[in-house]
Amino acid sequence: MAKTTGPLHSLNAAGSLAGALIFQHGLGGQTTKRHHRGNQKPTAARLAQQDRYRAAVADWRALDQAGRDQWLPDAARYGLTTYQAFMRQALAAPHAPVGIQWDGGASIWDGGATIWLS
After folding, report:
1. Which tens digits make up the pLDDT trace of 14-37?
2. What does pTM read for this prediction?
3. Which helix (H) or strand (E) holds 62?
4. pLDDT higher for 72 or 92?
5. What is the three-class DSSP state of 12?
6. Which domain holds residue 65?
7. d(CA 94, CA 91)
8. Do 49 and 78 share a structural domain?
9. Quick check: is 15 in a domain?
10. Total number of domains constituting the chain
11. Within a 13 Å sphere around the CA of 104, how many CA atoms are in the beta-carbon half?
């Protein structure tokens, strides 16, 4: 809903009208323009980023309070919330593609010498 001021609502308007027109005020004065809705399909890269974000959010929601509290030091260091610190790390490192199984340390690159501690 557009917000208007002045007599007969004619001096100033800001906002949108029925999702079709946009009223705004800038350095050049009052302007009105047509609302443009993008009609392009998302790219493969954009869809991949959305999937990474969804996976990171699901990982965060799966954490209990103790798991979330482990992010307090990183959050304090950068002035972030624990959620922001977690998402920063989770989105920096890509998740393994769906369907990839861990090979128990028998990877070719290390000849199976990897030892995972639990």
Report:
1. 777 777 778 777 777 777 787 777
2. 0.51
3. helix 44-62
4. 72
5. strand
6. 45-92
7. 6
8. yes
9. yes
10. 2
11. 0
Q: Give me the half-sphere count of Cα atoms (radius 13 Å) on the Cβ side of residue 60.
A: 18
Distance, in Å, from the CA atom of 107 to the CA atom of 115, rounded to the nearest integer, reads 11
Q: DSSP secondary-structure letter at 50? A: H
Do 50 and 87 sit in the same domain of this protein?
yes
**Coil, helix or strand for 3?**
strand
Query: What pLDDT, in 10s, does the model give residues 34-47?
Result: 777 777 888 888 89
* Amino acid (one-letter) located at 6: G
Q: Decide: 34 and 55 in contact? Cβ < 8 Å.
A: no
Distance CA 112, CA 94 (A): 23
- Which bin fits 112, alpha (ψ -120 to 50), beta or left (φ > 0)? left
Query: Do residue 29 and residue 56 come from a single domain?
Result: no
